[in-house]
Design a protein that fits this description.
alpha/beta; Rossmann fold; Dihydrodipicolinate Reductase, domain 2; six-stranded parallel β-sheet; two-stranded antiparallel sheet; 8 helices; 10 strands; 35% helix
Length: 226
């Protein structure tokens, strides 16, 4: 059985803690957040959903690497569900503590910093897997799986959107992660694979309209970073 640490007790952090408890042979799950009350309430909520006491709340500052190093010691895996700008420091702390890490990514420059820790991570015997959120993350994984089960793939187009089953408001959108992380995706340069090569394009490039069955209807899609 495994010991996990989930850094961040927001919506995604608690969903991750629940999945770890239900599907990942967990012995203990530490739910860590700068807001001790939020961490406690989150751990209690997940324990209630799991119908067993696996989650333990801890107060932690994602911006203090020395504190994170002590927290991560002895953990089999750390999952970072804090805003993207903390992730390089979190990754450094994980390597120093000898703990495996994955995070939700969201910013290419930060991910490049994390990838620069490759040699240090290998020397420490740990694995770092950044950018394992929705997109990049789940979408890429599903795309690769689809390619593997097909005889031939000429093109692959990835689309991602926060479209709830019951849309409300003028945008019909549902925010399920930090506003900061969302807005970050609409600025700067995005990196895509085009004709088999990495290409740098501005965000909002490639505007197109897509038609979906009701109640979704017509949507716009464009390139975002992350």
């Amino acid at each position: 059985m495994y010991t996990y640490i989930v850094l961040g007790a927001g919506k995604q952090g608690l969903a991750i803690a629940y999945d770890l408890g239900k599907f990942c042979d967990a012995k203990k799950i530490t739910v860590a957040d700068y807001d001790a009350k939020l961490a406690k309430a989150g751990a209690q909520r997940v324990n209630k959903l799991l119908r067993k006491k696996l989650c333990v709340p801890v107060k932690a500052d994602a911006g203090k690497e020395s504190d994170l190093k002590r927290l991560f010691k002895g953990a089999d895996c750390v999952v970072s569900a804090v805003p993207y700008h903390f992730n390089y420091g979190v990754a450094r702390a994980a390597v120093a503590a000898g703990a495996n890490l994955c995070d939700l990514g969201g910013n290419t420059d930060v991910v490049k910093q994390e990838l620069s820790l490759d040699k240090a991570a290998k020397k420490a015997g740990v694995t770092l897997v950044p950018d394992t959120g929705l997109m990049p993350g789940m979408g890429n994984t599903l795309a690769v799986h689809a390619m593997n089960v097909m005889d031939r793939v000429d093109e692959l187009h990835l689309r991602c959107g926060g479209l709830p089953q019951k849309p409300k408001g003028p945008l019909g959108y549902k925010l399920v992660f930090s506003v900061e992380g969302l807005i970050n995706e609409y600025f700067g340069t995005a990196y895509i694979i085009r004709n088999g090569k990495t290409a740098a394009v501005p965000t909002f490039d490639g505007l197109e309209e897509l038609e979906f069955p009701k109640p979704v209807g017509r949507c716009q899609a464009f390139v975002t970073s992350g």
